[in-house]
Design goal:
Layout (H helix, E strand, L loop, with lengths): L1 H53 L8 E10 L4 E8 L4 H18 L3 E2 L17 E13 L3 E12 L3 E2 L4 E8 L8 H7 L4 H18 L7 H11 L2 E5 L5 E7 L6 E6 L2
Antiparallel strand pairs: 1-2, 3-4, 4-5, 5-6, 5-7, 8-9, 9-10
């Protein structure tokens, strides 16, 4: 009987220890989660507060679009004004550049009335676009930077959409509102223009080894980047330095994007 009683007591003590471990473990786990949540919330509040101070219009995004006009509903071609909602001289200057470019491109928009008489384009009463420059936008944002990327191409109803003819990108520091120059970006990521070209060259060599359809002209690609500025360097939404550029080949040129390291 004594042994049986001792057994019950031992089992009870063991059971209580298990319960204590579970309760304590749950408490500390929950406590850590609360601390982590508070830390993330605090960081987000600081980031949001800094961005609010930088904004001109507090209730709007840092970059947004207005005056969207549809040129072709069927093709989804539109024009729009870009609003950089950042209170800095750099942001004002870029906004002016974008507004001026938009006005110049609007002069190139042609409709059915401007098309050659022998055109075979399939116009409709509500969709009579003949040709136009096209600007596509992308906004990439992370905690410290926001980037506006612009892809420029051209549409003609006879030849359809063309390859992207050029890129531009504007990366702003969300603490100061400063526009980062190419030199700023390269320095921040411990690169130089020579190292940038080397990384692109090596990437294209690897690509050529995997693709035998068209021969990549690496020299022409790099020259085209330098003289025609057909590339964009910027910080992406993962805080990585990225470059978009046009690859020249003996067949069809194409657009490429690589993350630099």
């Amino acid at each position: 009987m004594q042994n049986e009683t001792n057994g019950y007591v031992g089992f009870s003590i063991f059971f209580l220890i298990i319960i204590a471990i579970v309760i304590l473990g749950t408490y500390f786990l929950y406590s850590d989660e609360k601390k982590d949540t508070r830390s993330k919330t605090s960081t987000q509040e600081v980031t949001d507060s800094a961005q609010d101070k930088l904004k001109i219009e507090k209730k709007q995004d840092l970059i947004y679009f207005t005056n969207v006009e549809t040129l072709s509903e069927k093709l989804g071609i539109t024009t729009k004004d870009v609003v950089i909602n950042i209170n800095s001289e750099d942001a004002k200057n870029v906004s002016q550049i974008l507004a001026t470019t938009k006005k110049e491109q609007e002069k190139e928009i042609k409709t059915k009335a401007d098309a050659p008489k022998n055109t075979t384009c399939d116009f409709t009463e509500t969709d009579d676009l003949y040709e136009t420059p096209i600007r596509d936008y992308a906004i990439l944002e992370e905690d410290n930077y926001i980037t506006l990327i612009i892809n420029d191409s051209f549409y003609n109803c006879a030849s359809s959409f063309g390859i992207i003819e050029g890129f531009s990108a504007y990366t702003f520091d969300l603490k100061t509102g400063k526009l980062l120059t190419e030199e700023d970006l390269l320095t921040k990521y411990n690169l130089t223009k020579t190292l940038l070209n080397d990384q692109i060259r090596n990437h294209l060599k690897d690509t050529q080894n995997k693709n035998t359809e068209d021969t990549i002209d690496i020299t022409k690609t790099l020259s085209n980047m330098q003289y025609n500025e057909t590339y964009a360097l910027y910080i992406n939404d993962s805080a990585e330095l990225e470059v978009k550029y046009i690859v020249k080949t003996d067949g069809v040129d194409y657009n490429d994007t690589i993350v630099l390291n």
